Amino acid sequence: MTEPDKVLLTLKVNDAVHEVAVEARRTLADTLRHDLELTGTHVACEHGVCGACTVLVDGDPARSCLMFAAQAEGSEIRTVESLAGDDGSLSDLQTAFSANHGLQCGFCTPGFLMLAEGFLAERPDADREEIREVVSSNLCRCTGYQTIVDSIQDCAERRRNAKEASA
Amino acid sequence: MTFGTATGDGERGAGFRVDGTWVGAPVTRKEDPRLLTGGARFVDDIHLPRMLHAAFVRSTVASGHVTSVDLSRVLEVPGVVAAFTAEDLDLGDITPRLDRPPEEYTETSMPILARDRVRFVGEPVAVVLAEDPYAAEDGIEAADVTYDVTPPVLSEEQALAPEANAVHEQAPGNVLLDVSMFASDGIDDVFAEAPCVVQVHTRTGRQNALPLETRGVVAGWDSRAEQLLVQTCTQVPHQVRTVLAGSLGMAESTVRVLVPDMGGGFGIKCVVGREEIAVAAASIRVRRPVKWIEDRKDALSASFLAREQRYDARAAFDETGRILGLDVDVLCDMGAYSCYPFTVGIEPLMASSEMPGVYRVPAYRVRGRAIATNKAPTAPYRGVSRPQHVMVMERLVERAARELGLDPLEVRRRNLITVFPYTGVNNVTYDPGSYLESLNLCERVIADEGWYETRRAAADQGRVLGIGYSCFNERTGYGSDAFAKRKMQAVPGFDISEIRMDTAGAVVVTTGTMSHGQSHETTMAQIVADKLGLPLDKVKIQQGDTDRVAYGWGSFASRSITIGGTAVALAAGNLGGKLLDLGAHLLETPRDNVELGDEGVRQRDDPARGLSYRDIADVAYLKSHLLPKETEPGLQASASFDGVGDGTFSNASHGVVVELHRDTGRVEILRYVCVEDCGVAINPQVVDGQARGGIAQGIAGALFEKVTYDENGEPSAASFLDYKVPTACEIPDVGMHHIETPCLFTDNGAKGAGEGGTIGAPAAVLNAVNDALRPTGVELNDTPITPQQVFDALTGALEVAP
C-alpha cells in the first residue's frame, strides 16, 4: 500500500480563511476538529443521525460527519465557536439555552445551537410545533428535549419582541 | 417562592432566593458558558505531542477459540506504527468479586484483550496504533484472526439447556449468580390460602445507556511527573486507577487518572473498561501518548449494555386488595462478563433487595439469577433493575385490581407505606417519603387537566386513549453499610471533601463524585456558598483527578448530592469554624460572639465590626506571625461523610395519557405528569432536568430501544438506523410537580434525583397502554412495546390472556 494522497484545501470557517492539506477521505468534522482545532463541533455517531456535528454550510445546517472537507471548499462554514461575541459574551441563543437549562452534559449542544441558528434565520416566526419538529433532527440523551425546545422558542420570541420594539 | 438577583445578570434566574440562600434557587449553571461556546474539553478534544491513535481488532464471532492472530499485514499499512495482542501486552485480568459462597456466585475474569477464547462479537482481540485514526481503521482491516467457532449461547433457554456450551468453563450451567435473599416463613401457605393470586411474566429488552459521547481515553507517560497520565471519561476515576494499575503491575501512585468534560454516562462509564487499560499499556510500550475514541458501532454493540431481564412474579391479595405476599423469580442476562466493581450481581441483587418498593408486603420470596451469554457484557444503567421491577410490581397491582374489580389507584392506596420509618420484609428501613401524597397529587393533576373526560370523549369518536400511573421509590445515598449488604469486595459509600480558601477569600472544594452532566459544579457550589456566605463565583468545585482528590467513589446510584453534597457541606463547615476561630482572635472578641456572613466574619453584638475573608486570609498566609501560637498557617479543612443506615429514599408518582393509533399501532404520549419528592431541591431547575431526561430514557425503554442479535450472535442494531433512539417528536413535554420531604441525615435535606425519572416511566407507559387496550382484553407485559403488538391487539390478532 502507498501513502494516501493529500489534497490542499482552502476553507473559510467563521470568517477566517485556512489552508489545510488533508486526505481526500477526511470528513469536514475531523478537519474542523483536528486540523483547525475547532473542537466545539462534536462527533457522536459518524453516520449522520445524531446531529452533534451540525455546522452551518452557507447558512444551512449540515452534518459535518457526512461531508468531506473537500466538499466544503468555496462555502462559508460556521461553527459553534462563531456564536459568542469577541469578548466571550454569549449570544442570545446561547443565553436562552443556559436560562432554560437546555443543556446538561453539553455534548450534543453545539449541534443543537447550530441547528437552531440556521433554522431561526430562515424561520424567525416558527411556532413551538415547528421548533419541536426541527429539534427532532438531532439526538440528546440528557434533557428529554423539552428545555431545548423551550430555549429555541424563548430566543425566537425575544428576537421577535426586540424587532417589534424597534419597529 | 420568589427569587432575587444576586449577580446583576438581570431577569434570567441567576439570582438567589429572597430568603438569602443559594440552596433552593434555580441559578444558571457554572458549566454552561464553556459548553455553549465550544470551549469545553472532552477527551477527544485533547491532543498531545507525538500522539498515536488506537483502534481495536474485534472478534467477528460470538463464541469460539482463537486459533491464530496474524498482525503482520497490519504493520504494512501506511501510518500504522504498532499492533499488539494479548500475549504481547501480558496484562492482568479484571476480576470483580463478591463475598458469596460458590453455590451463590461464580467468579469470572475479563481479560483486557481476548486470549484463547472470544465470548461476544466485538470483543477486543488486538490493538492497532497509527499516526491517525483513519490509518488505525485501515490497520484493523488487515488483521487476520482465525477462530474455531462454537455454537453461541444467546438466550436464557440456550444458557440453561442441559447440554449448553459454557460461556465460562468454571460455570458449566452458565449461571454466575443464584441468590435467594428473602424467603418468608409460610409464604406457600399465604399463596395457597389467598383469595386472589395474580401472575405477571415479563421480559424487558436489552438496552444501551447511550451517552452521546462514547467512551474514550488519552494515555501516556508523563516523564516530568513520573506518572502514567490517563485522561478518560469515567464516572469512577479512582476505581479506574486501581484496576488499571493492578492490570499493568504498576504502583497506584504512578498512575494519575484525570477526567475531562464528560458527555454523559448514565452508568455505562461507571465500570472499568478493558480498552482504556489496553491503550495505557500500549502507550507505555511505544513510549508515545495514545488516544482511543470508541465509534458508535462499537458503543452500540461491544461496550456495556443492560436491562435484559425476565420476571416470573406472582402476588397474593385479600378481597379488599391488600397485598398478602410477593413471590418473584428474576433472571438477568448479563452477557459475557462481570463488571468491576459491581459484578454480575448488579441487576439481580438490586431487584431482589428493592422489589417490594413503596408497598407494604408482609411475605416475600425472591430468587435472583445472573446468567452468562455470548453478548456484550452489562454495566449499571440509570435506575439499575428498578425500571423493570417497578414495572412488574405495578403490573401485579393492576392485575389484582382487574381480578377484584377495584380501582387500581385505590388498590395502590390500600398498600402504600404511609408511616415512617418503615422496615420492610426486605430488611430495609425506609425514611420518610410522600408515597400516598404524590400519587394523590398526580391523579388530581391528570383529572384537573381533564384527561378523564378527554378519554371518554375520544372513545365516543372511536379513538383509543389510556391513562396509566406508576408509584415508586428510589434508594439514594447508599452508605458503605448499605453497599456492604451486597457483599461486593470493593465497598463504595463514603465521600471525602477538602476545601481551601485562597489569599483572595475564594474557595476550591474537592469532591470524590464525578459530574457528567448533573451540574455538580453549580449545585455543590450552591451548598458551599451558603455555608460560608460566599457568592457563587468564589466557589470552585474540583473533581475527577486522582492526584487532587484523596479517594472517591465517583457518581452513580444517585449518590452525589446526598453523600458528596453533604461531604462538601461538612468540609465548608469545618473551614467556617477555622475562620470563626481566627476572626474572633483578630477581632479580640469571644468566639461565641462571631458569625459568618457576606464574605467575612462579623461580630454578633456589633455587626458593623467584622473582617472580610480576604483580611483573614491575609493573616493566614501573608502575616502568619499574627496567628495564635497553636494555629497552623493557611485556610484549609476536610471532612468525610458516609450514608446513614439504609440510605434515603426519594419517591415519585408518574401519570401518563397515551393514544394508540389504529392504523399504525403507534403509541403516542399525549400527556406526562411527574410528581417527585427528592427532599430539598438544591437547584429546582436541575432537578426538573434530571427528571425529564430520566423520563425520556424510561420512555425509550418502554417503547423504542432494543439491542438485538441474529442467530449467530451478530448484533443487528449496531447503528442509529436500527437502534431507535427517541427524538423530540416522541418524547413529550413533562409537567413537573414537587413535594418536599427532607432527608433527615443529609446536611441540607436533599435526597438523590438522578435516576427516578427513568425508574417510573416504563411502568406508567405500559399501564397507560394496557388501560387503552382494556376493551380488547389484551394486556401487554413486555418492553419495548412494539407498534406491531399494539396493532395486533387493536385488530384482534393477539390472543387474550385467560
TrEMBL record, chain A:
Residues 7-83 form the 2Fe-2S ferredoxin-type domain. This is Carbon-monoxide dehydrogenase small subunit. It comes from Prauserella sediminis. InterPro entries: 2Fe-2S-bd (IPR002888), 2Fe-2S-bd_dom_sf (IPR036884), 2Fe-2S_ferredoxin-like_sf (IPR036010), 2Fe-2S_ferredoxin-type (IPR001041), 2Fe2S_fd_BS (IPR006058), Beta-grasp_dom_sf (IPR012675), Diverse_Oxidoreductases (IPR051452). Coiled coil: none annotated. GO terms for molecular function: 2 iron, 2 sulfur cluster binding; anaerobic carbon-monoxide dehydrogenase activity; metal ion binding. Its EC number is 1.2.7.4. Keywords: 2Fe-2S, Iron, Iron-sulfur, Metal-binding, Oxidoreductase.
From TrEMBL, chain B:
SMART domains: Ald_Xan_dh_C. Gene3D superfamilies: Aldehyde oxidase/xanthine dehydrogenase, a/b hammerhead, Aldehyde oxidase/xanthine dehydrogenase, molybdopterin binding domain. Keywords: Molybdenum, Oxidoreductase. Residues 37-151 form the Aldehyde oxidase/xanthine dehydrogenase a/b hammerhead domain. Pfam families: Ald_Xan_dh_C, MoCoBD_1, MoCoBD_2. InterPro entries: Ald_Oxase/Xan_DH_a/b, Ald_Oxase/Xan_DH_a/b_sf, Ald_Oxase/xanthine_DH-like, AldOxase/xan_DH_MoCoBD1, AldOxase/xan_DH_MoCoBD2, AldOxase/xan_DH_Mopterin-bd_sf. Transmembrane segments: none annotated. This is Xanthine dehydrogenase family protein molybdopterin-binding subunit. It comes from Prauserella salsuginis.
